Amino acid sequence: MKIAHMMEGYAEAAAAVTELVGRIPDEAWDGPGLGEWDLRALVGHASRSFVTVLTYLDRPADTEDVDSPEGYYAVLPALTGGGIDAASVARRGRDAGLALGDDPAAAFAALAERAVAAARAADPDMLITTIVGGLRFASYLPTRTIELVVHGDDIAAATGLDVTFSTHTTTQVATVLARTAVRLGHGALLLRALTGRADLPPGFSVV
């Protein structure tokens, strides 16, 4: 994945979700979001795509433990005992939502601006320390683009508002997710599903 394409995918996703969040009506913030989250918590969770970029850029690593964006997602199950700790994720989302304060849309936009600027200024080859260990910033940033696109779509679904991502960004996200499926051993299943020869199991996910 070319560095310029990786960066522009993140910036474009950040802009699209920021614009979407800016259209959320005041009365909707306490309404349904996703699962046990209200809308504020869902948007808070999406904002962590900015917070973690800013945080991890201040945490250099000495070794490269993960070699790619798909490697990041593939190693998570091993670190979490076979599955994501849903309670911890839910709690972080609620905390992040509360951290957005009295004007969550403005706070979200400010975080997006800071994170995109920091990402543009960063050395793509810099090793950073993340939840999965050390990896290059160029390998980490596409995972944040995925989070923005996926949760941007969640926000749109929860609010009835529309959000559009470019073909470039959507392709970038779909490519990393497909590579993750292959890395996790689901390549044959994915090929059969994409060619109409089988259905994916209920609840199938690679993240």
Please, could you describe this protein's structure?
This protein has 8 helices and 4 strands; from the N terminus they run αββααααββααα. α2 (39-56) runs antiparallel to α6 (137-159), α3 packs across α7 and α6 crosses α7. It has 207 residues and is mainly α. It has a two-stranded antiparallel sheet. The protein has a two-stranded antiparallel ribbon with strand order 3-4. β3 (127-130) and β4 form a beta hairpin. Helices cover 62% and strands 6% of the residues. It is globular.
Task: List the topology elements.
Elements: H1 3-22, E1 32-34, E2 37-38, H2 39-56, H3 69-79, H4 86-99, H5 104-121, E3 127-130, E4 133-136, H6 137-159, H7 167-183, H8 187-194
Antiparallel strand pairs: 1-2, 3-4
Helix pairs in contact: 1-5, 1-6, 1-7, 2-4, 2-5, 2-6, 3-6, 3-7, 6-7
